[in-house]
């Protein structure tokens, strides 16, 4: 199927395709899509969503922005109240498509040259994107390779203070800038949405969970208070079923007197200390390396000494 169709994601925001995630309202899905193509996909059908994710994707900007288009894949889809949350990965082997070249390919790509190029939407086209790009000498191969999904991370923390919430948001922002798909309540939990469902999905669907460990977080978790208490129950349940899991990473912010606190269920596990100080930058780099699953290079093993 992937050679017959492609996704077209058109945005009027000039930063839409500079990161790894974006949103698209349900009312904009399947605009400028032929009825025969719509019948093959349904945004309420899980298998159809998986099929959409298997398609190559053209990430384009509305015409007035005069910004280059990119090629890649949708790597994750999350259904929300009125929109899709999506993660994506751009193909680094395919160069940017300049506005001039893109304009010359509109007919071949089945993209309208008037209204469609001036409206944010998600269309599915019955066109072999790889062949079109190959014929235009943009790619050397007519087969477009799939892209790896960025690591997804859920952050569990307590609302200790406005300063602490800001610190957590800054950490999440930095991680997203470094290619990690962070799920954070400040961004992804809308008014009126069910908090427990959000926490369950966050823990279940993420590759790793950062447990921001402060004195207040550990106390609330131990006493099973509020959202922190509920999340700690989820952590405990997960560990009971998989004792050896490394899914949960304790991230320590020390108290004013320098004391480190770690939740009971995570004691004995290696934690990361991100307390503000001279070592914080290197600790952050270690965290990014870990989340991207990049191992630390091990020095080569030399021969046995001849003499001792």
Automatic annotation (TrEMBL):
Question: Which Pfam family, any one, appears in the UniProt record?
Answer: TIR_2
InterPro entries from the entry?
Answer: SEFIR_dom, TIR_dom, Toll_tir_struct_dom_sf
Protein name per the record:
SEFIR domain-containing protein
User: In this protein, which residues make up the domain named TIR?
Assistant: 149-295
Q: In which organism is this protein found? A: Paraburkholderia phenazinium
Please give the biological process terms from Gene Ontology that the record holds: signal transduction
The superkingdom listed in its UniProt entry is Bacteria
- SEFIR domain location is 150-283
């Amino acid at each position: 199927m992937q050679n017959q169709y492609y996704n077209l994601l058109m945005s009027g925001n000039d930063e839409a395709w500079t990161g790894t995630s974006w949103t698209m309202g349900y009312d904009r899905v399947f605009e400028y899509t032929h009825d025969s193509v719509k019948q093959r996909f349904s945004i309420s059908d899980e298998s159809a969503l998986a099929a959409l994710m298997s398609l190559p994707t053209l990430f384009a900007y509305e015409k007035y922005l005069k910004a280059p288009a990119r090629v890649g894949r949708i790597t994750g889809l999350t259904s929300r109240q009125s929109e899709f949350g999506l993660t994506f990965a751009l193909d680094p082997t395919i160069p940017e498509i300049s506005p001039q070249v893109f304009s010359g390919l509109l007919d071949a790509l089945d993209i309208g040259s008037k209204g469609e190029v001036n409206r944010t939407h998600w269309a599915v086209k019955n066109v072999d994107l790889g062949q079109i790009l190959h014929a235009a000498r943009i790619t050397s191969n007519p087969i477009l390779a799939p892209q790896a999904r960025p690591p997804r991370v859920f952050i569990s923390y307590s609302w200790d203070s406005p300063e602490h919430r800001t610190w957590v948001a800054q950490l999440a922002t930095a991680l997203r800038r470094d290619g990690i798909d962070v799920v954070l309540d400040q961004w992804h939990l809308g008014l009126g949405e069910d908090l427990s469902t959000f926490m369950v999905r966050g823990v279940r669907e993420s590759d790793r969970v950062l447990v921001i460990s402060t004195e207040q977080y550990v106390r609330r978790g131990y006493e099973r208070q509020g959202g922190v208490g509920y999340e700690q129950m989820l952590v405990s349940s997960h560990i009971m079923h998989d004792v050896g899991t490394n899914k949960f990473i304790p991230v320590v912010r020390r108290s004013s007197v320098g004391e480190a606190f770690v939740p009971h269920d995570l004691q004995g596990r290696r934690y990361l200390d991100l307390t503000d100080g001279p070592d914080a930058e290197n600790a952050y780099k270690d965290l990014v390396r870990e989340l991207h699953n990049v191992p630390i290079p091990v020095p080569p093993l030399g021969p046995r000494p001849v003499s001792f």
